[in-house]
């Protein structure tokens, strides 16, 4: 029995939450709390951000509180606002997930996490000027000022794609929609709004008044950070997500391919002064990635310890 418990401890230390949750009832007399904590950990690792099982009482309150800061609110008026208040806790978790997936050599899942990070990175850049992480319930009125083309569908002078125009039009009114429409918007369109905002401030060829609400003294800094976010989304590392030869899921990159793609990405990013932060050796499996995210956020970002602390709690439960 003790050797079986040692195996479960090893699974916890390897963040194998799903396997541990499945095996624990055959080893531990009352494994109900362990199973609940394993579900919590697996949701974190899988970035299943609807709720992260934050109401599970078997999970320590500190872990639930920290996980709640990474969730997306499931209704327009839900409080607290979680990742719509600030994306910084969510990016700290993303960095930890990327590191754990690398450690477990789950490279397809790792690249998927990198891809998610790339989609919302412009909102991380906008957070200091918005005062939120792009909460549709708190968009500044200036986005719809006279002369703004923000969210005007079919305007040919706007540099947004048709999909972005549709998403931007929706974001300006989605806070008044029922919960089902709100969740559908978050699932399908919110990341497109992130890219559209970055285009407005950093790459628009026909600027309108949509960004005039930003103080001129802050606009150039924001444009640099948003430009880095757009560049990152088109790097070889992020493109690995779509590199499978026969559709998604049929090609898994090797560690060497991931590192080679990241090296090429760092070269591309370094053409921008702020993007040179990616060239730093900060001890991360993809060296420089936390430094790059910190530069875009204009705030220090390091990997969270949510997964590690969840695993540590599971070890304590197994050794009771």
Please give the structural blueprint:
Elements: H1 2-13, H2 17-23, H3 32-45, H4 61-68, H5 88-103, H6 107-130, H7 162-171, H8 179-188, H9 190-202, H10 216-233, H11 236-239, H12 255-269, H13 289-297, H14 306-318
What does this structure look like?
There is one protein chain. The protein is an all-alpha fold and 320 residues long. Among the domains are: 2-90 and 306-318, no CATH class; 141-212, no CATH class. The protein has helices at residues 2-13, 17-23, 32-45, 61-68, 88-103, 107-130, 162-171, 179-188, 190-202, 216-233, 236-239, 255-269, 289-297, 306-318.
Short descriptors:
320 residues; globular
Series of H and E elements = HHHHHHHHHHHHHH
Poorly predicted parts: none
Strand pairing plus helix content: what structural class? mainly alpha
State the separation between the terminal residues, measured CA to CA: 14 Å
SS field, number of helical segments: 14
Largest sheet descriptor: none
DSSP strand count: 0
Which percent bin holds the helix content?
A: 40-55%
Arithmetic mean pLDDT = 94
Q: Strand content of the residues, in percent?
A: under 5%
* Rg, Å, rounded: 21 Å
Shape: globular
Short description:
The chain is an all-alpha fold and about 325 residues long.
